[in-house]
Design brief:
Largest sheet: 7 strands, mixed
Distance between the termini: 40 Å
Radius of gyration: 15 Å
Structural class: mainly beta
Number of strands: 11
Number of helices: 0
Order of helices and strands: EEEEEEEEEEE
């Protein structure tokens, strides 16, 4: 029962910065990707940034050039550096890790989620 724990959320003014971190409670094997999602009240959860096991990254158009996702394989952590924050970035941010394991001849995919951390951007 792997758990992901996020930290670093808080209240900042527009234009400010925050760094979110996510740590796994135990080693996760065969990771396919790590990502950050966010969800605002009344809206669907959306992908903010993702990074594959090989280091390839992708970002939502709304955060390109402002957010940076990174990982530390040795520590099983993933970080989201958020700069030039805007009010529309306000949301609960969730860490996500996807992996695949073999059971017999079948591949089983797993999703692990953090509890979420609140980010509020307001004057």
């Amino acid at each position: 029962q792997v758990q992901l724990v996020e930290s670093g959320g808080g209240l900042v003014q527009p234009g400010g910065s925050l760094r979110l971190s996510c740590a796994a409670s135990e080693r996760i094997f065969n990771i396919n990707a790590m990502a950050w999602y966010r969800q605002s009240p009344g809206k669907q959860r959306e992908l903010v940034a993702g990074i594959t096991s090989s280091g390839s990254t992708n970002y939502a158009d709304s955060v390109k050039g402002r957010f940076t996702i990174s990982r530390d394989n040795a520590k099983n952590t993933v970080t989201l550096q958020m700069n030039s924050l805007k009010p529309e970035d306000t949301a609960v941010y969730y860490c996500n890790v996807k992996n695949s394991i073999w059971m017999g001849r079948s591949t089983v995919s797993n999703d692990y989620w953090g509890q979420g951390t609140q980010v509020t951007v307001s004057s």
